[in-house]
Amino acid sequence: MSMRNLIVRLFSGLWAGADGLRKVLHLVLLVFIFALFFGALSDTPPIFPKKAALYIQPNGALVEQLEGDPYDRALAEMFDDGQQQMLVQDLVDALDYAKDDERIEVVYLELSRLYGTGLSKLQRVADAMEAVKAAGKPVIASADFMSQPGYYLAAHADEVFLHPDGAILLTGYGRFRTYFADAIDKLRIDWNIFRVGTHKSAIEPFIRMNMSDEDRESTTRLIDQLWGLYQADVSAARQLENGAIDDFADNLVANLRAANGDLATAAKNHGLVDELLTRNEVRNRMIERVGADEDDPDMFRAIKMRDYLSQMRLLEGGSVGIKNVAVIVAAGAIFFGEQAPGSIGADSTSALLRRARTDESVAAVVLRVDSPGGSAFAAEVIADEIDALRQAGKPIVASMSSVAASGGYSIALRADRIFATPATITGSIGVFGMFPTYQRTIGALGVATDGVGSTPWSGQFRPDREMSAETKQLFQLLVEDTYDDFISDVAAHRGLEKSEVDRIGQGKVWTGSDALASGLVDELGTLEDAIAAAASMADLDQGDYGIKLIETRLSAAEQFVVDLLGVLIQSGVDLSSWAGKPTAFEQLAREIGEKTGSILRFNDPKGIYSHCLCDVIQ
User: Fold this and answer.
1) In sequence order, which ranges of 512-555 are alpha helices (DSSP H)?
2) Which of 143, 185, 228, 527 could crosslink 112 through cysteines, CB 3.0-4.6 Å?
3) What pLDDT, in 10s, does the model give residues 41-70?
4) Which member of 112, 406, 428, 610 is catalytic?
């Protein structure tokens, strides 16, 4: 065994041991805390009032799947050190239960903490809110400050309250990136790029210092459509005149001047909200509607969403039946191997698809895709499992969420039927490869690499050596072949001419409406529409089937820790003060990591990717 292997194994062992010790110490700490609070933290379900408001307070972004390992996610939530997220399905389920629950007289949404989520997810929640209103139950929304996503939901409420010192800031949609070309050049790194697609812009941050004309054209078309959808939905919900949202945003300075510099007043003057009320005034309004809480007379009678969902799901006994439509969520970037929830792994996602195939209770499958793509090889491994499902006689329907582009589109492509929403970002049919080398960097430090090999390819894939012309040709040929396979698959599965797929491919990004017009998807519809379609394809009658979510299983020990953490969190135990606050440098490093994280984590065995950096800022 070489010295290098010994060192690698030594440090791997030390790291594994340290990580294991960390988890053991965390477990000991949590068990100790659990013992201290055991009497107060019993698992007796809360007793809800007979008449109350359902209190919903979204925190963070709405997502299809929570990111990360359940253990680390729960621990991060306990110490207030993690990205805040809420499952869009939880919010939809809570609203769905509430519309038929006699205990719920009104739904109250406090939207100050909602930010950064796709328009298609907001539309799902808004549809559920409209169903509550159609059942005769008022929906009230308020906030200190409203983000653009927060205001979208507020607009669908019967009444909207904003704090007198608050604000609504509608910035529209945009896409801005950080470009690194000059920094890479100063570091003397050769960032070798191989791509097919005139609009395949995922690699531009590494080779440019600004947006290309092709990317600017594609992005402008995309954000104009999304902003048009946003305005149309909000204007219809608030019964505003056409152009009212544009007028408020485009002429914000003039509108603010007319309101004497008061953003809240400007919002009210334009009909965006009904009244400007302080927190106490909002609570008093809610007390007038549902009465005061018996234990806290200054608070209205309320059932918090988390407690409500837990009880309702327990009472309903779940939605799994004898025959089921399975739902598998594929959210995040696509990587090789096993990946935690919030990312798509070739092995982990394939395992979920195999479970659906071998589960006799599953008659059909819906693959819920919310992904910009990633590893081309990993996407192909997942696509093979989708083909195996179809060959087993189980229909599979792809349901696109906010993003199903590039590799995300390639896995949806293999389904029997594809649903998207008008606001889905999809397409981006293109391929690229990257192989950075840093021989000039180490050369500046007085370090060189040399040696001999038995073939021309020996040592050619070392990042400390310059790529030869033949190696560059090899990479480009592989990328071109992968792109040809991609458009050939699209042509075969979508019944299109290959030349037509190439025309709408080239890395161009489309909305769901555009994708429907060009034949990339079959129908515009929701997740519920996709489930109904899958059931129909499996000859399941409405009401005769259940819905089975297939997700990664936890071990007994993992489940114990997650449950323990959940009890502590729900009981109000706050350990955030035990954790040190991040420094300004740590916050900057985290932000840079978030912007470049997925692309720097890429681990495709061939170094070829089908990925769309098509995040839209709102």
Assistant:
1) 512-518, 527-537
2) 143
3) 444 556 778 899 999 999 999 999 988 776
4) 406
DSSP assigned state of 581: P
Q: Which helix (H) or strand (E) holds 150?
A: helix 148-155
Distance CA 578, CA 141 (A): 34
Q: Does the annotation count 577 as an active-site position?
A: no
- List own/partner pairs for 463-472 with CB under 8 A and 24 or more apart: 463/435, 463/436, 463/437, 463/438, 464/437, 464/438, 464/439, 465/437, 465/439, 466/190, 466/437, 466/439, 467/190, 467/192, 467/435, 467/437, 472/192, 472/194
Query: How many helices (H) and strands (E) would you count in the chain?
Result: 23, 22
pTM: 0.86
Residue 461 lies in a domain: no
Q: Is residue 94 part of a domain?
A: yes
Q: How far apart are CA 592 and CA 594, in angstroms?
A: 5
Residue 427, domain member (yes or no)? no
- In the chain, the percentage of residues whose pLDDT exceeds 90 is 70
Mean of pLDDT values over 472-499: 95
In one letter, which amino acid is 584?
A: A
The reply to whether 488 belongs to the active site is no
539 has a pLDDT exceeding 70: yes
In the numeric block, which tokens belong to residue 170?
A: 């509608």
Residue 584 scores a pLDDT above 80: no
Closest CA to 616 of 344, 280, 221: 221
Report the pLDDT averaged over residues 490-510.
Answer: 95
Average pLDDT (245-265) is 95
Other Cβ atoms within 10 Å of 574 Cβ, number:
11
Per the listing, tokens 């594929």 go with: 330
- CA dihedral sign of residues 418, 329, 533, 95: negative
Distance CA 103, CA 51 (A): 5
Alpha helices in 301-448 (DSSP H): 305-316, 346-358, 376-391, 407-412, 439-444
- 561 pLDDT higher than 80: no
Distance CA 313, CA 188 (A): 57
* Helix, strand, coil percent values for the chain (each to nearest 5): 45, 20, 35
**What separation, in Å, do the N-terminal and C-terminal C-alpha atoms of the chain show?**
54
The catalytic position among 99, 121, 137, 200 is 200
134: domain CATH number?
3.90.226.10
Q: Identify the DSSP state of 300.
A: B
The mean predicted confidence, pLDDT, of the chain is 87
Domain that holds residue 301: 52-175+216-316
* Closest by CA position to 82, among listed 569, 477, 495: 569
pLDDT for 578 beyond 50: no
Alpha-carbon torsion, ordered 49, 50, 56, 62, to 10 deg: 110
Tell me how far apart the alpha carbons of residues 409 and 394 are, in angstroms, rounded to a whole number.
20
Does residue 163 form part of some domain? yes
Confidence at residue 579, expressed as pLDDT on a 0 to 100 scale: 46
Q: How far is it, in rounded angstroms, from Cα 59 to Cα 110?
A: 10
Count the domains in the chain.
Answer: 1
- What is the Cα–Cα distance from 343 to 314, expressed in whole angstroms? 29
Whether residue 429 contacts residue 506, with contact meaning beta carbons closer than 8 Å, is answered with: yes
E-strand spans in 526-617? 546-549, 608-611
